[in-house]
Amino acid sequence: MSRLTRKVEEALLGAALFNPAALPSMRRWLPSAVFSRADHQALWQVLHAIDFTTVPSSQIPATVSAAIAEQIAEPGLRACLSPARLAQLANACPTPGSAPLYGGMVLEAAVHRSVERAGEELRQTAREAEVDQAAQALARVEGTGQRLAALGAAWQAAPETVRNLLDTAPEQPVTLAPRTERSRVDLRAEAETVASLLYQPAQLDEVRWLQRGDFADPQLAAVYQAMATLHERHAPIDPLTVAWQAQRQSGAQPSEQVLDELDRGGTPGTAVHTGEQVLATAALDRLDGAGHQLRNLARHPALAPASLVGHSDHALQPVAADRERIRQAERELAPADQEPAPAEPATQPATAAPEMEMDL
């Protein structure tokens, strides 16, 4: 919790102690969970439990203290809410009449904290999941999207006058620090996939769910894109046609050495299996990237709640697209449900290949 957030929470509590009549209007849109400290949450709950319409203004401090002693069982919390502390809160409030605005500021800080926690949880999920658990890991995005929707609804529940004062656009475009490196890379699977496709281009029909952006190695990505483009045109695919097509594309260009190694290292029939690993690895990396972006967005104080929720939802869209591509790959792989059989000997029956469950 920042020092400014703490001061705003204290100002709201002080305003409520100074003028409890403002409490009923905030009950609907400002729950105790928006406060960052346990003692602040407890005091907010106590204040809402008291019927101040029957309490004279001179008796407010004693009434609140008695309610704290009766309703709060935790000794540590009671100690934090001593009569002296309550008096300090009431006297330190700059403008008691601004309680609704202070409430909006407290809610805004809570939205930022919640988005930051969501980002950290996504990053943790992405880094702890195994490659064959990518589908389950990406399913977390659905819950994150629901959390963002709930945050947006909570903000919309605030009074329009409060939202109009706080939902302002930043004066300058929001720029976020990018990640310095990818969290997940499987260069071996990438090279094996591209080499197999170069050796047996007909497999490109079986990996339509694979995209250039799934490859961490820029040269392998360029080769894959060139092959995919040639395949769409029904053009021959070999190292020369791939090199020629790659020079028309933007970005990195594959070297002769890379193309030669791919040409010599291809194994037929393995592109689907290794391509699935490439997709899963890239999807987990993008999940980590989405979490990184949510965290950094939440740490940007210039973003008002509506903008923060909107930007965060947009950051999740690539992950949702990856989840759908993994589902597509699973549907296409479901009938076989096994690793590709070894290419040699050519006469070996396919049933001799050991089966392996695909959990992606």
TrEMBL record:
Q: What is this protein called?
A: DNA helicase
Species whose genome carries this gene? Streptantibioticus rubrisoli
Mark out the compositionally biased spans (Polar residues). Answer: 247-256
Outline the extent of the DNA helicase DnaB-like N-terminal domain: 7-106, 186-254
| Listed Basic and acidic residues bias regions | 325-334
Q: Note down the stretches annotated as region Disordered.
A: 247-268, 325-360
Mark out the compositionally biased spans (Low complexity).
335-354
Q: Which UniProt keywords apply?
A: ATP-binding, DNA replication, DNA-binding, Helicase, Hydrolase, Nucleotide-binding
Q: Which InterPro entries match?
A: DNA_heli_DnaB-like_N_sf, DNA_helicase_DnaB-like_N, DNA_helicase_N/primase_C
Annotated GO molecular function terms are: helicase activity
